[in-house]
What we know:
Chain A is mainly alpha-helical and 95 residues long.
Amino acid sequence: MSKDSRMRATINQKLTEMGERDRLKELLRAKLTECGWKDQMKAHCKEVIKEKGLEHVTVEDLVVEITPKGRALVPDSVKKELLHRIRAFLSQHAT
Amino acid sequence: MKTDLQELVAILKVSMQLISRSVNLLNLLSHHDLSFRFPCSRSTGPPLIKISNTDFQMKMEDMPLSGPDNTKLEALVHDIYSELVDDACLGLCFEVHRAVKQGFFFLDETDQESMKEFEIVDQPGVDIFGQVYNQWKNKECECPNCKRLIAASRFAPHLEKCLGMGRNSSRIANRRLASNNNMSKSESDQEDNDDLNDNDWSYGAEKKAKKRKSDKSQNSPRRSKSLKHKNGELGGSIGSEPYKVTTSSFNQYNYNTGISYESLGPDEVRSLLSTQCGVISEHTKKMCTRSQRCPQHTDEQRRAVRVFLLGPSAPSLPDADTVAESDSFDIPDGQALMSRLQWEDSPDISPTDSASSKASANHSDSRKPKKKKRTSLALNCGGRGWSRSRRRRRKQPDWRLQQQQQLSE
Lengths: 95, 409
Protein backbone atom coordinates (compact mmCIF):
# COMPACT_ATOMS: atom_id res chain seq x y z
CA MET A 1 0.00 0.00 0.00
CA SER A 2 2.84 2.35 0.65
CA LYS A 3 3.91 1.82 -2.95
CA ASP A 4 0.51 2.76 -3.96
CA SER A 5 0.47 5.87 -1.86
CA ARG A 6 3.94 6.78 -3.08
CA MET A 7 2.80 6.39 -6.62
CA ARG A 8 -0.18 8.59 -5.91
CA ALA A 9 2.00 11.19 -4.35
CA THR A 10 4.34 11.27 -7.32
CA ILE A 11 1.51 11.49 -9.75
CA ASN A 12 -0.13 14.29 -7.86
CA GLN A 13 3.13 16.10 -7.70
CA LYS A 14 3.67 15.75 -11.40
CA LEU A 15 0.17 16.87 -12.08
CA THR A 16 0.70 20.07 -10.15
CA GLU A 17 4.22 20.74 -11.31
CA MET A 18 3.43 20.49 -14.95
CA GLY A 19 0.48 22.80 -14.62
CA GLU A 20 -1.86 20.10 -15.74
CA ARG A 21 -3.93 20.35 -12.59
CA ASP A 22 -4.62 24.05 -13.12
CA ARG A 23 -5.42 23.45 -16.71
CA LEU A 24 -7.83 20.74 -15.81
CA LYS A 25 -9.43 22.96 -13.21
CA GLU A 26 -9.97 25.74 -15.68
CA LEU A 27 -11.31 23.34 -18.23
CA LEU A 28 -13.77 21.95 -15.76
CA ARG A 29 -14.94 25.36 -14.62
CA ALA A 30 -15.45 26.53 -18.16
CA LYS A 31 -17.37 23.44 -19.12
CA LEU A 32 -19.58 23.59 -16.09
CA THR A 33 -20.45 27.22 -16.71
CA GLU A 34 -21.10 26.48 -20.35
CA CYS A 35 -23.50 23.65 -19.70
CA GLY A 36 -25.48 25.60 -17.11
CA TRP A 37 -24.36 23.67 -14.08
CA LYS A 38 -23.27 26.80 -12.32
CA ASP A 39 -26.62 28.50 -12.76
CA GLN A 40 -28.41 25.43 -11.53
CA MET A 41 -26.23 25.35 -8.45
CA LYS A 42 -26.76 29.03 -7.83
CA ALA A 43 -30.48 28.57 -7.94
CA HIS A 44 -30.12 25.78 -5.42
CA CYS A 45 -27.99 28.04 -3.26
CA LYS A 46 -30.75 30.63 -3.31
CA GLU A 47 -33.18 28.11 -1.97
CA VAL A 48 -30.80 27.03 0.76
CA ILE A 49 -30.18 30.60 1.77
CA LYS A 50 -33.86 31.39 1.85
CA GLU A 51 -34.30 28.40 4.06
CA LYS A 52 -31.55 29.22 6.46
CA GLY A 53 -32.08 32.95 6.48
CA LEU A 54 -29.93 35.54 4.78
CA GLU A 55 -28.07 36.70 7.82
CA HIS A 56 -26.96 33.41 9.25
CA VAL A 57 -25.64 31.49 6.31
CA THR A 58 -22.16 30.14 6.77
CA VAL A 59 -19.75 28.65 4.32
CA GLU A 60 -20.07 25.29 5.98
CA ASP A 61 -23.80 25.30 5.49
CA LEU A 62 -23.43 25.92 1.86
CA VAL A 63 -20.70 23.38 1.39
CA VAL A 64 -22.65 20.69 3.09
CA GLU A 65 -25.72 21.39 1.00
CA ILE A 66 -24.10 22.07 -2.28
CA THR A 67 -21.33 19.56 -2.72
CA PRO A 68 -23.29 16.33 -3.01
CA LYS A 69 -25.79 17.87 -5.33
CA GLY A 70 -23.00 19.40 -7.31
CA ARG A 71 -21.25 16.14 -7.79
CA ALA A 72 -24.44 14.53 -8.96
CA LEU A 73 -25.40 17.25 -11.37
CA VAL A 74 -22.21 17.22 -13.42
CA PRO A 75 -23.25 16.19 -16.93
CA ASP A 76 -21.88 12.97 -18.35
CA SER A 77 -20.09 14.55 -21.25
CA VAL A 78 -18.09 16.78 -18.97
CA LYS A 79 -17.23 13.89 -16.74
CA LYS A 80 -16.11 11.75 -19.62
CA GLU A 81 -13.98 14.46 -21.06
CA LEU A 82 -12.20 15.03 -17.80
CA LEU A 83 -11.62 11.39 -17.11
CA HIS A 84 -10.22 10.96 -20.55
CA ARG A 85 -7.78 13.76 -20.07
CA ILE A 86 -6.65 12.50 -16.71
CA ARG A 87 -6.11 9.06 -18.08
CA ALA A 88 -4.15 10.41 -20.97
CA PHE A 89 -1.95 12.29 -18.59
CA LEU A 90 -1.38 9.25 -16.45
CA SER A 91 -0.59 7.01 -19.34
CA GLN A 92 1.98 9.51 -20.50
CA HIS A 93 3.63 10.17 -17.21
CA ALA A 94 3.09 7.15 -15.00
CA THR A 95 6.15 5.00 -14.33
CA MET B 1 -26.41 -40.83 -21.35
CA LYS B 2 -24.39 -40.52 -18.28
CA THR B 3 -21.17 -41.06 -20.06
CA ASP B 4 -22.10 -38.43 -22.62
CA LEU B 5 -22.78 -35.89 -19.96
CA GLN B 6 -19.63 -36.71 -18.13
CA GLU B 7 -17.69 -36.42 -21.30
CA LEU B 8 -19.17 -33.07 -21.99
CA VAL B 9 -18.35 -31.86 -18.51
CA ALA B 10 -14.81 -33.06 -18.87
CA ILE B 11 -14.45 -31.25 -22.15
CA LEU B 12 -15.83 -28.12 -20.65
CA LYS B 13 -13.46 -28.27 -17.73
CA VAL B 14 -10.50 -28.65 -20.00
CA SER B 15 -11.58 -25.81 -22.18
CA MET B 16 -12.08 -23.61 -19.12
CA GLN B 17 -8.61 -24.37 -17.96
CA LEU B 18 -7.24 -23.52 -21.32
CA ILE B 19 -9.14 -20.30 -21.33
CA SER B 20 -7.95 -19.32 -17.87
CA ARG B 21 -4.39 -20.06 -18.85
CA SER B 22 -4.63 -17.95 -21.93
CA VAL B 23 -6.20 -15.20 -19.90
CA ASN B 24 -3.31 -15.26 -17.50
CA LEU B 25 -0.84 -15.20 -20.31
CA LEU B 26 -2.52 -12.27 -21.91
CA ASN B 27 -2.74 -10.43 -18.62
CA LEU B 28 0.91 -10.97 -18.10
CA LEU B 29 1.58 -9.56 -21.51
CA SER B 30 -0.57 -6.50 -20.97
CA HIS B 31 0.83 -5.99 -17.52
CA HIS B 32 4.15 -4.99 -18.94
CA ASP B 33 2.85 -2.39 -21.30
CA LEU B 34 0.31 -0.05 -19.84
CA SER B 35 -0.50 1.68 -23.06
CA PHE B 36 -1.52 -1.51 -24.76
CA ARG B 37 -5.11 -1.32 -25.86
CA PHE B 38 -7.22 -3.81 -27.64
CA PRO B 39 -9.07 -2.45 -30.60
CA CYS B 40 -12.57 -3.32 -29.52
CA SER B 41 -14.21 -3.23 -32.85
CA ARG B 42 -11.68 -5.48 -34.46
CA SER B 43 -11.52 -8.13 -31.80
CA THR B 44 -12.44 -11.52 -33.10
CA GLY B 45 -13.37 -13.10 -29.84
CA PRO B 46 -14.87 -11.76 -26.66
CA PRO B 47 -12.74 -9.19 -24.85
CA LEU B 48 -10.31 -11.00 -22.61
CA ILE B 49 -9.48 -8.04 -20.46
CA LYS B 50 -11.00 -7.43 -17.12
CA ILE B 51 -13.32 -4.48 -17.12
CA SER B 52 -13.19 -2.30 -14.06
CA ASN B 53 -16.40 -2.07 -12.14
CA THR B 54 -16.37 1.62 -11.77
CA ASP B 55 -16.67 2.45 -15.44
CA PHE B 56 -19.23 0.78 -17.62
CA GLN B 57 -19.02 3.08 -20.57
CA MET B 58 -16.78 1.77 -23.28
CA LYS B 59 -15.63 3.93 -26.12
CA MET B 60 -12.59 3.69 -28.28
CA GLU B 61 -10.79 6.48 -26.48
CA ASP B 62 -12.24 5.86 -23.07
CA MET B 63 -10.93 2.36 -22.70
CA PRO B 64 -10.17 2.01 -18.99
CA LEU B 65 -6.75 0.97 -17.98
CA SER B 66 -6.37 -2.72 -17.74
CA GLY B 67 -4.76 -5.13 -15.33
CA PRO B 68 -4.81 -5.41 -11.55
CA ASP B 69 -2.44 -2.57 -11.00
CA ASN B 70 -4.38 -0.56 -13.38
CA THR B 71 -7.52 -0.72 -11.37
CA LYS B 72 -5.58 1.22 -8.84
CA LEU B 73 -4.68 3.69 -11.51
CA GLU B 74 -8.25 3.90 -12.56
CA ALA B 75 -9.19 4.56 -8.98
CA LEU B 76 -6.58 7.24 -8.91
CA VAL B 77 -8.04 8.80 -11.99
CA HIS B 78 -11.41 8.95 -10.36
CA ASP B 79 -9.97 10.37 -7.21
CA ILE B 80 -8.32 13.13 -9.13
CA TYR B 81 -11.57 13.81 -10.90
CA SER B 82 -13.48 14.01 -7.63
CA GLU B 83 -10.93 16.36 -6.25
CA LEU B 84 -11.37 18.65 -9.19
CA VAL B 85 -15.13 18.61 -8.93
CA ASP B 86 -14.97 19.32 -5.21
CA ASP B 87 -12.69 22.23 -5.91
CA ALA B 88 -15.19 23.64 -8.32
CA CYS B 89 -18.06 23.27 -5.88
CA LEU B 90 -16.08 24.86 -3.12
CA GLY B 91 -15.18 27.75 -5.34
CA LEU B 92 -18.83 28.27 -6.10
CA CYS B 93 -19.71 28.16 -2.40
CA PHE B 94 -17.17 30.81 -1.57
CA GLU B 95 -18.43 32.99 -4.35
CA VAL B 96 -22.02 32.69 -3.27
CA HIS B 97 -21.24 33.19 0.39
CA ARG B 98 -19.28 36.32 -0.33
CA ALA B 99 -22.06 37.65 -2.50
CA VAL B 100 -24.55 37.00 0.26
CA LYS B 101 -22.48 38.70 2.89
CA GLN B 102 -21.71 41.66 0.64
CA GLY B 103 -25.36 41.95 -0.14
CA PHE B 104 -25.44 41.63 -3.91
CA PHE B 105 -26.58 38.07 -4.24
CA PHE B 106 -30.26 38.82 -4.54
CA LEU B 107 -29.97 41.96 -6.62
CA ASP B 108 -31.69 40.56 -9.66
CA GLU B 109 -34.81 39.75 -7.72
CA THR B 110 -37.59 42.02 -6.64
CA ASP B 111 -40.97 41.32 -5.10
CA GLN B 112 -43.03 38.48 -6.38
CA GLU B 113 -45.58 40.61 -8.18
CA SER B 114 -43.09 42.38 -10.38
CA MET B 115 -41.35 39.13 -11.08
CA LYS B 116 -44.54 37.63 -12.38
CA GLU B 117 -45.39 40.69 -14.39
CA PHE B 118 -42.16 40.65 -16.34
CA GLU B 119 -41.75 36.97 -16.75
CA ILE B 120 -40.38 35.78 -20.06
CA VAL B 121 -43.15 34.96 -22.52
CA ASP B 122 -42.67 31.92 -24.67
CA GLN B 123 -45.59 31.80 -27.05
CA PRO B 124 -45.54 31.59 -30.81
CA GLY B 125 -46.19 34.79 -32.72
CA VAL B 126 -45.19 36.91 -29.78
CA ASP B 127 -41.80 38.14 -28.59
CA ILE B 128 -40.46 37.54 -25.10
CA PHE B 129 -42.18 40.64 -23.80
CA GLY B 130 -45.50 39.44 -25.08
CA GLN B 131 -45.75 42.03 -27.87
CA VAL B 132 -46.83 41.17 -31.33
CA TYR B 133 -44.05 42.39 -33.54
CA ASN B 134 -45.56 42.60 -37.02
CA GLN B 135 -48.75 44.21 -35.90
CA TRP B 136 -48.40 47.27 -38.10
CA LYS B 137 -47.23 45.53 -41.20
CA ASN B 138 -50.53 45.31 -42.98
CA LYS B 139 -52.02 48.55 -41.79
CA GLU B 140 -52.45 51.52 -44.04
CA CYS B 141 -52.60 55.16 -43.10
CA GLU B 142 -54.24 58.05 -44.85
CA CYS B 143 -51.84 60.84 -45.66
CA PRO B 144 -53.24 64.16 -44.39
CA ASN B 145 -51.65 65.98 -47.28
CA CYS B 146 -52.48 64.04 -50.38
CA LYS B 147 -55.24 61.86 -48.95
CA ARG B 148 -53.75 58.67 -50.24
CA LEU B 149 -53.56 55.40 -48.39
CA ILE B 150 -49.94 54.57 -47.68
CA ALA B 151 -48.49 51.44 -46.12
CA ALA B 152 -47.44 51.97 -42.53
CA SER B 153 -43.77 51.25 -43.04
CA ARG B 154 -43.58 53.66 -45.93
CA PHE B 155 -45.59 56.37 -44.26
CA ALA B 156 -42.78 58.37 -42.77
CA PRO B 157 -40.73 58.71 -45.97
CA HIS B 158 -43.85 59.50 -47.91
CA LEU B 159 -44.74 62.30 -45.50
CA GLU B 160 -41.29 63.72 -45.87
CA LYS B 161 -41.67 63.99 -49.60
CA CYS B 162 -45.27 64.97 -49.52
CA LEU B 163 -44.91 67.84 -47.10
CA GLY B 164 -41.59 68.87 -48.54
CA MET B 165 -39.91 68.87 -45.18
CA GLY B 166 -37.36 66.13 -45.30
CA ARG B 167 -33.68 66.21 -46.02
CA ASN B 168 -33.86 65.32 -49.67
CA SER B 169 -37.33 66.44 -50.49
CA SER B 170 -36.37 69.91 -51.72
CA ARG B 171 -33.56 68.50 -53.80
CA ILE B 172 -35.81 66.03 -55.50
CA ALA B 173 -38.51 68.61 -56.05
CA ASN B 174 -36.02 70.97 -57.62
CA ARG B 175 -34.76 68.30 -59.91
CA ARG B 176 -38.21 67.45 -61.01
CA LEU B 177 -39.06 71.05 -61.71
CA ALA B 178 -35.82 71.57 -63.50
CA SER B 179 -36.41 68.65 -65.77
CA ASN B 180 -39.88 69.98 -66.45
CA ASN B 181 -38.39 73.30 -67.36
CA ASN B 182 -36.01 71.63 -69.72
CA MET B 183 -38.74 69.80 -71.46
CA SER B 184 -40.88 72.84 -71.89
CA LYS B 185 -38.20 75.23 -73.05
CA SER B 186 -37.46 75.10 -76.74
CA GLU B 187 -34.53 77.39 -77.10
CA SER B 188 -32.55 76.75 -74.00
CA ASP B 189 -28.90 76.28 -74.61
CA GLN B 190 -27.49 73.60 -72.45
CA GLU B 191 -23.79 73.43 -72.34
CA ASP B 192 -23.91 70.38 -70.24
CA ASN B 193 -20.96 70.50 -67.99
CA ASP B 194 -21.30 74.14 -67.27
CA ASP B 195 -24.89 73.79 -66.39
CA LEU B 196 -24.33 70.88 -64.11
CA ASN B 197 -21.59 72.74 -62.39
CA ASP B 198 -23.84 75.71 -62.13
CA ASN B 199 -26.46 73.59 -60.53
CA ASP B 200 -24.21 72.09 -57.98
CA TRP B 201 -22.65 75.26 -56.85
CA SER B 202 -25.57 77.54 -57.09
CA TYR B 203 -27.86 75.14 -55.35
CA GLY B 204 -25.49 75.03 -52.43
CA ALA B 205 -25.32 78.79 -52.22
CA GLU B 206 -29.02 79.11 -52.52
CA LYS B 207 -29.63 76.60 -49.82
CA LYS B 208 -27.54 78.59 -47.41
CA ALA B 209 -29.07 81.86 -48.35
CA LYS B 210 -32.64 80.72 -48.25
CA LYS B 211 -32.41 78.36 -45.35
CA ARG B 212 -35.04 79.96 -43.19
CA LYS B 213 -37.69 80.45 -45.80
CA SER B 214 -40.19 77.67 -46.12
CA ASP B 215 -39.96 75.48 -49.12
CA LYS B 216 -43.33 76.36 -50.47
CA SER B 217 -42.66 80.05 -50.66
CA GLN B 218 -39.27 79.25 -52.04
CA ASN B 219 -40.78 77.49 -54.95
CA SER B 220 -42.93 80.34 -56.14
CA PRO B 221 -40.30 83.07 -56.35
CA ARG B 222 -38.09 80.62 -58.15
CA ARG B 223 -40.77 79.81 -60.59
CA SER B 224 -41.57 83.40 -61.21
CA LYS B 225 -37.91 84.18 -61.75
CA SER B 226 -37.44 81.36 -64.15
CA LEU B 227 -40.62 82.29 -65.94
CA LYS B 228 -39.48 85.84 -66.19
CA HIS B 229 -36.27 84.67 -67.65
CA LYS B 230 -37.99 82.39 -70.06
CA ASN B 231 -40.49 84.77 -71.37
CA GLY B 232 -38.72 88.01 -70.89
CA GLU B 233 -37.22 89.85 -73.80
CA LEU B 234 -33.81 88.61 -74.31
CA GLY B 235 -32.64 91.73 -75.97
CA GLY B 236 -33.72 94.00 -73.20
CA SER B 237 -32.68 91.84 -70.41
CA ILE B 238 -29.31 91.04 -71.73
CA GLY B 239 -27.75 94.26 -70.73
CA SER B 240 -28.67 93.72 -67.17
CA GLU B 241 -28.17 90.06 -67.31
CA PRO B 242 -24.78 89.89 -65.68
CA TYR B 243 -26.21 91.69 -62.69
CA LYS B 244 -29.24 89.55 -62.65
CA VAL B 245 -27.11 86.55 -62.93
CA THR B 246 -25.08 87.46 -59.93
CA THR B 247 -27.87 88.67 -57.72
CA SER B 248 -30.11 85.76 -58.34
CA SER B 249 -27.02 83.66 -57.96
CA PHE B 250 -27.68 82.01 -61.23
CA ASN B 251 -30.33 79.66 -59.99
CA GLN B 252 -30.91 76.30 -61.47
CA TYR B 253 -33.74 77.48 -63.59
CA ASN B 254 -31.51 79.74 -65.53
CA TYR B 255 -30.37 77.36 -68.15
CA ASN B 256 -30.19 80.01 -70.72
CA THR B 257 -26.47 80.26 -71.00
CA GLY B 258 -26.72 80.66 -74.68
CA ILE B 259 -28.52 82.93 -77.02
CA SER B 260 -29.28 82.32 -80.58
CA TYR B 261 -27.66 85.09 -82.52
CA GLU B 262 -29.92 84.70 -85.50
CA SER B 263 -32.87 86.16 -83.69
CA LEU B 264 -31.07 89.29 -82.61
CA GLY B 265 -30.70 92.49 -84.44
CA PRO B 266 -27.34 94.14 -84.97
CA ASP B 267 -27.75 96.59 -82.13
CA GLU B 268 -28.66 93.84 -79.78
CA VAL B 269 -25.79 91.80 -80.96
CA ARG B 270 -23.44 94.72 -80.41
CA SER B 271 -24.66 95.33 -76.91
CA LEU B 272 -24.48 91.65 -76.21
CA LEU B 273 -20.98 91.35 -77.47
CA SER B 274 -19.83 94.33 -75.47
CA THR B 275 -20.76 92.63 -72.25
CA GLN B 276 -20.48 88.97 -72.90
CA CYS B 277 -18.17 86.43 -74.37
CA GLY B 278 -20.48 85.73 -77.25
CA VAL B 279 -18.56 82.86 -78.73
CA ILE B 280 -20.81 80.66 -80.74
CA SER B 281 -20.88 77.11 -79.54
CA GLU B 282 -20.50 74.47 -82.18
CA HIS B 283 -23.02 72.10 -80.66
CA THR B 284 -25.85 74.46 -80.20
CA LYS B 285 -25.06 77.38 -82.46
CA LYS B 286 -25.65 79.77 -79.62
CA MET B 287 -23.62 82.51 -78.14
CA CYS B 288 -21.91 82.07 -74.86
CA THR B 289 -23.41 84.34 -72.24
CA ARG B 290 -20.49 84.27 -69.88
CA SER B 291 -18.36 87.28 -69.25
CA GLN B 292 -15.63 88.61 -71.44
CA ARG B 293 -13.06 86.63 -69.52
CA CYS B 294 -14.88 83.38 -69.86
CA PRO B 295 -12.25 80.67 -69.53
CA GLN B 296 -13.93 78.36 -71.93
CA HIS B 297 -13.28 80.50 -74.93
CA THR B 298 -10.19 82.25 -76.10
CA ASP B 299 -9.95 85.82 -77.20
CA GLU B 300 -9.35 84.67 -80.71
CA GLN B 301 -12.71 83.02 -80.67
CA ARG B 302 -14.33 86.11 -79.29
CA ARG B 303 -12.73 88.26 -81.89
CA ALA B 304 -13.73 85.85 -84.61
CA VAL B 305 -17.32 85.95 -83.47
CA ARG B 306 -17.37 89.68 -83.44
CA VAL B 307 -15.91 89.79 -86.88
CA PHE B 308 -18.45 87.28 -87.99
CA LEU B 309 -21.44 88.99 -86.51
CA LEU B 310 -20.63 92.63 -86.76
CA GLY B 311 -18.26 92.80 -89.66
CA PRO B 312 -14.55 93.34 -89.59
CA SER B 313 -14.77 97.01 -88.88
CA ALA B 314 -16.22 97.01 -85.40
CA PRO B 315 -15.12 94.26 -83.14
CA SER B 316 -16.31 95.52 -79.82
CA LEU B 317 -14.25 94.20 -77.01
CA PRO B 318 -14.21 96.31 -73.86
CA ASP B 319 -11.87 99.09 -72.86
CA ALA B 320 -8.25 98.61 -72.19
CA ASP B 321 -8.28 95.54 -74.21
CA THR B 322 -10.18 96.99 -77.09
CA VAL B 323 -7.37 99.38 -77.67
CA ALA B 324 -4.93 96.56 -77.55
CA GLU B 325 -7.12 94.41 -79.67
CA SER B 326 -7.66 96.95 -82.38
CA ASP B 327 -4.00 97.65 -82.37
CA SER B 328 -3.25 94.05 -82.74
CA PHE B 329 -4.92 94.05 -86.08
CA ASP B 330 -2.49 96.51 -87.53
CA ILE B 331 0.52 96.21 -85.35
CA PRO B 332 2.91 93.32 -85.48
CA ASP B 333 2.90 90.42 -83.11
CA GLY B 334 4.87 92.00 -80.35
CA GLN B 335 2.05 94.15 -79.14
CA ALA B 336 -0.48 91.44 -79.74
CA LEU B 337 1.62 89.26 -77.57
CA MET B 338 1.73 91.95 -74.98
CA SER B 339 -2.00 92.31 -74.98
CA ARG B 340 -2.39 88.61 -74.66
CA LEU B 341 0.06 88.52 -71.88
CA GLN B 342 -1.97 91.12 -70.12
CA TRP B 343 -4.99 88.95 -70.51
CA GLU B 344 -3.25 85.92 -69.21
CA ASP B 345 -1.68 87.75 -66.39
CA SER B 346 -4.93 88.67 -64.88
CA PRO B 347 -7.11 85.61 -65.31
CA ASP B 348 -6.64 84.83 -61.70
CA ILE B 349 -7.54 88.27 -60.62
CA SER B 350 -10.06 89.35 -63.14
CA PRO B 351 -12.60 86.63 -62.72
CA THR B 352 -13.20 87.90 -59.29
CA ASP B 353 -14.75 91.07 -60.53
CA SER B 354 -16.01 90.32 -63.96
CA ALA B 355 -19.50 91.09 -62.81
CA SER B 356 -18.69 94.43 -61.36
CA SER B 357 -16.40 95.32 -64.20
CA LYS B 358 -18.41 94.34 -67.13
CA ALA B 359 -17.53 97.34 -69.12
CA SER B 360 -14.14 98.05 -67.72
CA ALA B 361 -12.06 95.05 -67.07
CA ASN B 362 -9.02 96.95 -65.98
CA HIS B 363 -6.07 95.41 -64.35
CA SER B 364 -5.98 98.24 -61.93
CA ASP B 365 -9.56 97.65 -61.07
CA SER B 366 -8.83 94.08 -60.35
CA ARG B 367 -6.54 95.05 -57.52
CA LYS B 368 -9.33 95.70 -55.13
CA PRO B 369 -9.41 95.32 -51.39
CA LYS B 370 -10.12 91.97 -49.95
CA LYS B 371 -13.72 92.44 -48.93
CA LYS B 372 -14.93 93.38 -52.32
CA LYS B 373 -13.03 90.59 -53.85
CA ARG B 374 -14.58 87.99 -51.69
CA THR B 375 -18.11 89.05 -52.30
CA SER B 376 -17.48 89.41 -55.96
CA LEU B 377 -15.87 86.04 -55.96
CA ALA B 378 -18.99 84.54 -54.53
CA LEU B 379 -21.19 86.40 -56.96
CA ASN B 380 -18.98 85.61 -59.83
CA CYS B 381 -18.72 82.03 -59.18
CA GLY B 382 -22.43 81.95 -59.37
CA GLY B 383 -22.27 83.87 -62.57
CA ARG B 384 -19.46 81.84 -63.93
CA GLY B 385 -20.86 78.62 -62.85
CA TRP B 386 -17.52 77.40 -61.67
CA SER B 387 -17.44 74.28 -59.65
CA ARG B 388 -16.60 74.58 -56.00
CA SER B 389 -13.29 72.89 -56.39
CA ARG B 390 -12.27 75.22 -59.08
CA ARG B 391 -13.13 78.16 -56.91
CA ARG B 392 -11.13 76.75 -54.09
CA ARG B 393 -8.20 76.07 -56.30
CA ARG B 394 -8.21 79.59 -57.55
CA LYS B 395 -8.67 81.16 -54.19
CA GLN B 396 -5.15 80.55 -53.13
CA PRO B 397 -3.44 82.17 -56.04
CA ASP B 398 -5.80 85.11 -55.69
CA TRP B 399 -4.89 85.58 -52.09
CA ARG B 400 -1.25 85.20 -52.79
CA LEU B 401 -1.40 87.61 -55.65
CA GLN B 402 -3.21 90.00 -53.38
CA GLN B 403 -0.46 89.69 -50.87
CA GLN B 404 2.10 90.33 -53.50
CA GLN B 405 0.21 93.33 -54.70
CA GLN B 406 -0.13 94.70 -51.25
CA LEU B 407 3.52 94.20 -50.63
CA SER B 408 4.39 95.83 -53.87
CA GLU B 409 2.02 98.72 -53.17
